[in-house]
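Fold it.
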Amino acid sequence: MRSVDEHRQVVAGLIAARRPVSLPVAQTLGLVLADDVVAPLSLPGFDNSAMDGYAVLVEDVAAATDDTPVRLPVAEDIPAGRTDIPTISSGVAHRIMTGAPLPWGATGVVPVEATDGAVDTVTIRAGVRPGQHIRRAGEDVTAGTTVLRAGQVVTPAVLGLAAALGLADLMVVPRQRVLVLSTGTELVAPGTPLQPGQIYESNAVMLAAAVRDAGGEVVASPMTGDDVDTFRETLRRHTAAGHVDLVITTGGVSAGAYEVVKDALSGTVEFVKVAMQPGMPQGAGRVDDTPIITLPGNPVSALVSFEVFIRPALRAAMGLPDPDRPRRTAVLSEDLTSPRGKRQFRRGVLDGDAVTSYGPPASHHLRWLASANCLLELDEGTGEVAAGERVQVWDLR
């Protein structure tokens, strides 16, 4: 059997980064910058007021106190957005709003709270220091400065800075476009009455959500029965246009009859047994130059396989940080057994420094996986682990 690490390398070798693209700023949240961003202008672009108040010459209000206020005529009203910037002269004040351009010659801004707020002759009860309550041009960003670096994830704050700099587009690493294809004649869509032997399709819903959670884009998530021709036609219909970077299938890869994925792709995809539990039957290869990863059909096997093989490779191809789940050791609260020669991934609940396995190890127990917050990783040489020992844990939180 192929080792887990060997199969991880095979999968990682198939999933490659897309060429960087220029996208509208609003569409880049969560993506990774492909180029450095150099500021085309300064921020602020002009001296402006940091307060609602009155622009003044500092020496005109130096003596102002509660007991000896200074009264000045209000010569101008300057709201934010005014484009004709006036010049202030000695002995007057200009009423000014936060963000409004500072009048030429003004050396300070008196907050409205230190005045009576008048619009004709203002009474000022406190002086200000030179430059106080003034935002100087370029004190945040100087034009020509590199403000964002390639490899940085676009966050809301990054979007705010890009918009403030007047950037319409950003060069980013685009999302991986993924087709999730679920197989099985027994599958029916939710809302359809079940016949004997039928089950509701859940793997495509689950894996599509996992792709999005990893940062990828789901192109489609159809399901097909166990007919080889139908499966091939569905696959080619979605990949022919070249809008799919990766195909993930689930089901149809075991050793029994009616294994539609195996029957349809033998000779194109390499089907192997990986030394792990759950998730032993796996496949990887290319169909018409499109990478394809074939996962088992049992739901726990499918999602664990995604976590182990696909998620890290997918995130790495998009340049996203922390492609692997956080890993740590925790104290096991019970005795466990594991099949020697296979790496076992058990559902668990992590609480502080303690971890408890959660539910049976079999691959169809989806309920337990839905409430687990970690995976316990027991390596191939482990047969028994005693309570109190430290074990490797993948933190899924």
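Residues 21-43+149-173 form a domain with the Molybdopterin biosynthesis moea protein, domain 2 fold (CATH 3.90.105.10).
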